[in-house]
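Justification of resources, computational component.

The compute hours requested in this renewal are based largely on the per-chain cost of generating structure records like the one below. Each record pairs the submitted sequence with a full structure-token output. That output is archived, and it is also reused by downstream analysis tasks.
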Amino acid sequence: MFRRRRLGMVAVALAAAGIVALPTAATAAPAWGTASGPRPLVAGPGPAWSWGYNGLGQLGNGTTTNSAVPVRVSGLTGLTQVVGIAAGRYAGYAVRRDGTAWSWGYNAYGQLGDGTITNSRVPVRVRGLTRVVALAGGSANGYALRGDGTVWSWGYNNYGQLGNGTTTNSRVPVQVVSLTRVIAIASGGTTAYALREDGTVWSWGYNDEGQLGNGTTANSPLPVRIIGLSGVRAIAGGQETGYALRGDGTVWAWGDNDEGQLGNGTTVSSAVPVVIRNLSEVTAIAASSEGASGYALRGDGTAWAWGLNNTGQLGNGTDDTSLVPVPVNGATGLVGVTAISAGSFSGYALRRDGTVWAWGSNFFGQLGKGLTTPPYSLLPVQVSGIAGAEAVAGGGFSGYTLVNTLDR
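The structure output for this chain reads:
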């Protein structure tokens, strides 16, 4: 039901609007450790902003009207002092400074975690969660990392993506079984990932293309260890592909590879991790939630991308798919990048000066530049009206950012 679709952006989006379902899939860097305890995700606290597709309320501003410019996620229901953001395919997620989790948008499978299956155009509180330090969103799931190193999940569960040993959906958070001392979480489609303090990576859920990374293609409703990975410091999840950044600055990938999203120069899928070619000194990674593309940020502030490029989501000035990483073009102003994320067919980057940039599909205004024409951009453009941004996240066809202004 939530498999990747590559029929062209309009067809994909209209089909998705009928039965829709984060990610999202952005870099999940460590958020917890025994030495330092829980730490805030960003400097904050501040308000969250969103733009793009809003047919199910995923902009969180009380409407279902799309917006080609950023609009503020409503704080009327209690979402203030935000310190972290994440996105699912058609839902937004946020962490407040007090450690509570909030969500908004599509909720047919309970992915808002508020005990209902009612969509919400404004933020609602995820039930029963405290001391949250990080969030992630899948196709129709939410995930939370608490300060005690445990992982919690809610929403759709037909492939075991809640990680609690069942395939029963849950409208409220349930604990992922047998995972402790976790420092980062990520999700791609209907598969979830966790990075433990010892540098190992674990996964659970759907596995038709080997995206669990354990050498099989069998689904698992319980966490399994990804083969051959150690010393990992960040993780990301694509639709059917997983990614890991090791401490030596190399990036590894596993799962589906029919568009070159493993970045190793082939289109051969792999059920175990393989190294991505021509990438070194990487500091952050991200992955497309639907578009079969991967992203990396290097220590010199340059962004790199590989895989599917049918709407310019590699940002290199072409629409040619690439089986190996290519630099996102900085000629239009994308330099000094400090964070990177991805939506379904769009890339997002945060610059050191607090501006947000985007490239790729723009059918619903998800580039945030005030227009929906042209329908995509092969090069990065600046998101309108955002300054002082501290974080960026890409949802299905929407973008999100957190601005560093006091919000009391």
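DSSP finds one helix and 28 strands in the chain. Helices lie at 9-18.
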